[in-house]
Amino acid sequence: MSALLSAFAGLPNAAEPVAGWVTGGQPTEQQLNAFKVAGGQVVLDNRDPMEPRPFDEPTVVRTAGLEYHSLPIVHGAVTQDTMKRMHEMLRRLTGRKALLHCSSGNRTAAALIPYLMVEKKMEEEDAVGVAMKSGMRSAELMEIAVQYAKSLS
Fold it and tell me: What are the φ and ψ backbone dihedral angles of 101, each rounded to 5 degrees?
C-alpha cells in the first residue's frame, strides 16, 4: 500500500486506481492533513457544494497547504459536458499526487473511466473494472462515462 493510500485509512472506498491518485468518499480533516504529510498536492472535490459536509473542506485543504479544486458531479444531472470537464481536469493532474473524492467514491470512480480508456489506453471492460473496485455503483454514470470516452475515439 502506498503512503498516499495509507493516509486515508478508514476512508469509504479508498483506492489508488492510478499511481499517485487516491479516490474515495468524504475525507476527514485528519486524513487531509495525513495526505499532505504523505506528499499529497491536490484535492479534487466532486461533491455538489450544497451537499452537507462535516467541516469547511476548502479552508481545511488550503490551510494544510494543498491545492483545492471543486468540480461537482451532481446526482441526476451528469452530462457528457460533466465528463469532459472531469477528463480535462484529470489530464491537468497527471503526474501530481491527488485525492479525488465525492461522498462515497461512486461519482468520482465513474468519472475516471474516460481518463482510463483514453489516456491510459485501457479497454472498456478493464476501465469499468477499475472504477467498480474504486467504488462506482451507478450503471447510469458508467454508461455516460463510457459513451463520452467512445466519442473521443
Answer: -145, 160
The CA distances from residue 58 to 52, 80, 101, 120, in Å, are 14, 26, 13, 30
Angle at 71 between CA 34 and CA 78, to 5 degrees: 130
Closest CA to 66 of 93, 39, 106, 28: 39
15-18/21-24 β-pairing: antiparallel
SS (H, E, C) 36-82: HHCCCCEEEECCCCCCCCCCCHHHHHHHCCCEEEECCCCCCCCCHHH
For the segment 62-90, what is each residue's pLDDT rounded down to a tens digit? 999 999 999 999 988 999 999 999 999 99
Taking the complete model, does pTM exceed 0.90, yes or no?
Answer: yes
